[in-house]
Specification:
This protein folds into 2 domains: about 70 residues, no CATH class; about 110 residues, no CATH class. About 40% of the residues lie in helices and about 15% in strands. α3 packs across α4. The longest helix has 25 residues.
Length: about 200
């Protein structure tokens, strides 16, 4: 071992032993405080959230290095956060793009089939499995005109819903508006056929 003789014997002196014991007791005390923040409101947290919780809820300031050292020493593990399905859905469908507000929230215009609304949601079933449901609704009658169920979230689910709408309600060919996420998300002035690219 690369330890000097004096360093080796100094390790076993009473003073060094007491210092290590005091250090262990201090770490134990810090661990208990960190665990309070770790379990605050029933959600397990990582080092950064623990730091913020300690400061905001308990008025205690520890630096991140100390928190991470204690967490590693006592095996306090932050679980990996699952992906937010709503955020994933918004990303896949480009839901939050800014588009012209053609309707100004005037969804009911007295004509069935004039304004169409779309939505994509998910249903959890079985052992944590997830199915995605895409729908197109007539804003005037609240009737579901077309829907598609898929095990994965991709643009195909929206396009397949539009194809079903075109096949089952081919008379809806003028001034149909898609108010939800879609491939182009705009007023379809000539035909639903334009939207599905056929």
């Amino acid at each position: 071992m690369d330890v000097s003789r004096s360093g080796y014997y100094n390790y076993f002196t009473e003073k060094s032993t007491q210092k290590r014991t005091a250090h262990e007791l201090a770490d134990e005390a810090v661990k208990e405080i960190i665990l309070k923040a770790y379990h605050f409101r029933g959600r397990r947290k990582g080092a950064r959230q623990i730091k913020m919780t300690l400061e905001n809820q308990y008025g205690i300031t520890y630096n991140l290095k100390r928190i991470r050292r204690i967490m590693k020493k006592f095996e306090i593990v932050c679980p990996i956060r699952k992906a937010n399905p709503a955020r994933r859905m918004a990303k896949a469908t480009k839901e939050h793009r800014t588009c012209p507000n053609e309707l100004q929230r005037n969804f009911k215009q007295g004509v069935a089939g004039k304004v169409l609304l779309t939505d994509i949601t998910y249903l959890t079933y079985g052992n944590g499995k997830r199915a995605y449901l895409s729908t197109i609704k007539d804003a005037e009658t609240n009737e579901i005109l077309a829907y598609e169920v898929s095990a994965s979230l991709s643009m195909d689910i929206a396009l397949n819903t539009l194809r079903k709408l075109k096949r089952n309600h081919h008379h809806l060919t003028k001034d149909a508006f898609d108010a939800g996420p879609s491939r182009k998300r705009r007023t379809i002035t000539s035909s639903i056929q334009t939207e599905v690219g056929e």
